[in-house]
């Protein structure tokens, strides 16, 4: 199975997280830029999640390898919660004025939301994708 697109998405997602970190260090004056970056970033994540749900997980769950099936189901199940929390975060902080009005709240929410996304991308890159490529 060719997962190059999924791997490229991971690079874009990790880059998006880093971009948000860099902008956040600039503080309240960057609130509009942060919101714009978050909107762009959330689009990348939405498209990636849709591709996983429509193509990757269903394809893997048809595998003859029960370990792949179990791993796919576990990753899909775990990702649902992370995705839901990220989408709520993105909806809540998609306007610069909201970020500027509660910058500390935004930073706390970003840390609580983006760390699990970052960790998940690393876990998939380290465990899931190599297993898929070895099929």
From TrEMBL:
It holds the Pfam family Hemerythrin. This is Hemerythrin domain-containing protein. It comes from Comamonas flocculans. Residues 3-132 form the Hemerythrin-like domain. It comes from the Bacteria. InterPro entries: Hemerythrin-like (IPR012312). The lineage of its organism: Bacteria, Pseudomonadati, Pseudomonadota, Betaproteobacteria, Burkholderiales.
